[in-house]
Specification:
By secondary structure, the chain is an alpha+beta fold. The chain has 2 domains: about 5-135, no CATH class; about 160-345, P-loop containing nucleotide triphosphate hydrolases (Rossmann fold, 3-Layer(aba) Sandwich). Helices cover about 25% and strands about 35% of the residues. Helix 4 crosses helix 7 (about 330-340) and helix 5 crosses helix 6. The longest helix has 17 residues, at about 10-25.
């Protein structure tokens, strides 16, 4: 809940800050510059922060270093030129507020502790005061950057949701659930068994005619167990997480998988796993709540629009619950059989 409403924004003060960011962005040579595709949406990035610049090529599945695509949203990631105690400009919108976790969210600016994001048209400016943000243990799990992408994608055809996607012959399933539900383990072992793989935690969805199409965002899997038979170019052991970050060889990633079913794994004590039809509305509602919480650093101000967006992507797809057994092999076999026996072809 909001704790402090703010009004009376000084537009001149805002423009002064924006001008400084523009000067810094254009006068300094970035450490990494190029276009990153989030699903079908290009985002042109000029990054001046070393720990982030070092990871962009390997962590994003589709990058074009040095290329500025004409219709790309622009993002500048800069070292801060402001003192930490810089006064926060007030905003002119009447519904702006501070949240309990010291985040100021407004239509044109996000202030998150020592990070400031400014937006004008389709250009975003983000500053980072120090490299301590690399404590977010990898780029794909960097909550500030990931939620920034949610914010930037709001007015595009691409939607990034929390889930995993695996497939066979370009037809696949979206595995959904809250953190800890088993998405990463299931999808990683499906990859090791030869299924097509889109992602284990964040996937980009868009609509083509009546079909929902999934594409990868990151080339990583985050797991706390060994996964056989996959091609990795690096494994990171994060300081603040029990999970290892496996950077996949990009040949392991697929594109344009058509979502034919949504599966929500449920941890049970059953002897054998089973996938059974279930009601879609409760799961869609939970996916929407998850999306809205992540979309703009704190709770979304566009809950109805968020719901319509997610519902439009998933409403024509059948939903299933999967009762998990204690055997990872049995669980993975059940999903593989579900896809390969063409059960998804008939939904």
């Amino acid at each position: 809940m909001p704790t402090n409403y703010i009004k009376n924004f000084n537009k001149d003060e805002f423009q002064k800050i924006l001008d400084v960011f523009e000067v810094v962005a254009h006068e300094k040579k970035p450490l990494w510059a190029g276009t990153v595709y989030i699903g079908k949406q290009p985002i042109y990035i000029e990054c001046h922060v070393k720990w982030m610049a070092d990871k962009i090529d390997s962590f994003f599945t589709n990058t074009l270093p040095g290329e500025h695509i004409q219709n790309a949203i622009k993002l500048y990631v800069l070292k801060s030129t402001f003192p930490v105690d810089m006064p926060v400009p007030k905003q002119f919108e009447p519904d702006v507020y501070f949240t309990n976790d010291d985040i100021l969210r407004v239509p044109d600016m996000i202030v998150h502790k020592h990070c400031i994001l400014l937006n004008t048209n389709d250009t975003f400016y983000m500053n980072v005061d120090h490299d301590d943000l690399n404590n977010f243990y990898h780029l794909g799990e960097n909550h500030l950057l990931m939620r920034l992408f949610y914010y930037m994608l709001q007015n595009t055809p691409t939607t990034v949701i929390h889930g995993a996607v695996v497939g066979y012959k370009n037809n696949g399933v979206l595995i959904t659930g809250l953190s800890g539900a088993g998405k990463s383990t299931l999808s990683a072992f499906c990859l090791s068994k030869g299924l097509q793989f889109i992602g284990d935690d964040r996937v980009a969805l868009h609509k083509e005619n009546t079909s929902t199409i999934a594409n990868p965002v990151y080339s990583t899997i985050s797991v706390n167990t060994d996964i056989p038979n996959i091609k990795a170019i690096n494994i990171i052991h994060p300081k603040y997480s029990s999970k290892d970050i496996i950077i996949l060889d990009k040949s392991q990633l697929s594109q344009n998988i058509k979502i034919k079913a949504v599966i929500e794994p449920i941890k049970t004590n059953c002897e054998h796993p089973i996938i059974i039809p279930t009601r879609k509305n409760p799961i869609i509602t939970r996916i929407c709540k998850d999306y809205s919480h992540l979309s703009i650093l704190s709770r979304s101000t566009q809950l109805i629009a968020d719901y319509k967006r997610i519902f439009g992507l998933l409403c024509n797809i059948d939903f299933y619950k999967m009762q998990l057994s204690d055997s990872i092999d049995d669980n993975v076999t059940e999903i593989i059989n579900f896809i390969k026996q063409q059960r998804v072809e008939n939904v």
